[in-house]
Design goal:
Helices cover 0% and strands 43% of the residues. The protein has strands at residues 26-34, 38-40, 50-51, 59-60, 68-79, 84-92, 95-96, 108-112, 123-132, 139-147, 154-156, 162-169. Strands 1, 2, 5, 9, 11 and 12 form a six-stranded antiparallel beta sheet that branches. A hairpin with a 2-residue loop joins strand 6 (84-92) and strand 7 (95-96).
Length: 171
Amino acid sequence: MTSRLLVDKIEGKTTAGTVQMPSGSIVQRVHEFSMMALTISSGTYSDTGTELSSSFRPSITPKFADSKLMLIVSCDMKMADANKGCVIKVKRDDVLLDIGPSNSNAFLFCYRQDVGSGDNHHFVISRNAELNANSTNTTTFKFFGTRFDNSGVAAFAIWSPLTVDILEVRP
């Protein structure tokens, strides 16, 4: 004979945060996307950049302070000019994430080499990062675009959206 356990909701005796979950379990997922279609032709790489959309700020409220947050970002990016690059930088609660290569703050990076006249390529770039939740306070992410070498025209989310997944995972 087999047994079945059917439930609609699992709660701790005093709070939902007391339920013990095994390591690696996904506690919650936030999924958001934006088709903001932005081009940038000014500013310098040393700047934070231009916020891709002030109405697109995914957030999560961790259930456990010791959880890990897996941030997964994907975006269509292109440079209209050859031998130029563009970058997406990410802020968490208004602090620039310093997780790019060589601590460059570049979360997503696209570089276009001159491969022939008239080439105009879009690339869907994706990257993830593991962050510490640190608290059960809501944490908000903002996304900024800039040009890597201070010239050219950078484009973001023209052909496909900026997509963000935030997973809270038990350590």
